[in-house]
Amino acid sequence: MLEVRGLSAAYGQSEVLHGIDLAVAPREIVAVVGRNGMGKSTLMKTLMGIMPARSGQVLVGGAQVTALPSHARVAAGLGYVPQGRQIFGTMTVKENIETGLVVTGRSAVAPEIYQLFPILEEFAHRRGGNLSGGQQQQLAIARALASDPRILLLDEPTEGIQPSIIKDIARLLRQIRDLRNLCIVVCEQVLSFVLDVADRILVMENGRIVHATPRNNVNEVEIARFLAV
Prior knowledge:
- By secondary structure, this protein is α/β, with parallel strands linked by helices.
- It has a single domain, classed as Rossmann fold (3-Layer(aba) Sandwich), CATH 3.40.50.300.
- The protein is built from nine helices and ten strands.
- The chain has a six-stranded mixed sheet, sandwiched between helices.
- Helix 7 runs parallel beside helix 8.
- The longest helix has 18 residues.
- It starts with a strand and ends with a helix.
C-alpha cells in the first residue's frame, strides 16, 4: 500500500534522511521507533510533502506521489496526524473534523467516526482547545480519518498523553485498522505502546533504518537499547 524507495531529505545542506527504503502492506501497522533527533518526524513530513525530498520515491497503492503537494497526497490516500496534534483550538470539534472532508467532496462526517470516538460526538460543539490532551489526540485522528485515507501516518501520538490513555489509543488504532482496512505507520518512542499496537517494528538511527523485526520476534532489550538516551 505504501512504498518508499531511497528517500532522502535535507535541511539546507544538512542531509537528515539517508536513502530510506520502506514497504507497508495493506492492514499492517508499522512502528518506526528511535530517540529524538533521529529523523522520525522528518520522515513523516517528507512522506506528506511538507518537506521536499532530495531524492527517492514515495508510492501510494503503486501510484507515484513524490512530486505532489500535501493536499494532493491526502487526496491520493495519505492521512496525517502531526506531532503535537495541531488541531484548531478556536473551532468546534465538529468543525475540526469537517476540515478533513475537503478532499472528499462530502459535507457530512461519516457516522462511523463518531462511533469510534463517542466523546467527540458528545463534545461536538465544544471548542477544540478546551479538550484534554487525550481528547485532542482523538480529534486529530478523527480529522485524518474524515479524508478517507488508505494509509494513516501518526507522529508521536502518545506525546503529552497520560499513561492510562496510551493503551486506549493503541486499542483504537487496531480498531480503526480492522474497520477501515487501512495500513498505519506510527513514529513513536514509548516502547510499551509500540509493543501493544505494531505488527512490525523498525528502528531509525541517524536518518537510517538500522533494524527491523516482526512484533512476534521482537527482542525488547535490543529495541530498548536503541531508545536509551
